[in-house]
Specification:
Blueprint lengths: L7 H7 L13 H65 L1 H12 L1 E2 L16 H5 L7 E2 L3
Parallel strand pairs: 1-2
Amino acid sequence: MRDPEFHEFDRDRLDHAAMAWVPPKPDIWQRLSRLAEVVLYILLIAGVLRIFQPEIEKQRQLNGDLSQILEVKADREARVAELRQEYELLKTDREYLETVARDRLDKARDGEYIVRIEREAETTEVEESAPPTRAIRPIEP
């Protein structure tokens, strides 16, 4: 049972001025109109997306191409850095220069033996036709 002293809500119900802010319940036509408006907006958005879909696909493909180009660029920059480092070593480090020259020219010092291990994966068609052994010539003093 309600408290007889508590009349605040009863007073608001009976007061038509207090209920003036409450909108009336929409009828079926207003609901259908709102539904048609929502469907129209959805169709409009779908139409715009369909119009721009080829451009979006083109942009995705261009982004893929850009990532491949950036990957190649990074590989080439790494190779340039390696070559620059090797160039600096060849210019400044005599021991490195001697090691590289002896390796490329297949030269050995007196009393020194060179052992080369060639793997099959590294051989090419030209190397396959050549004999598997190499002649080692000593360095002339």
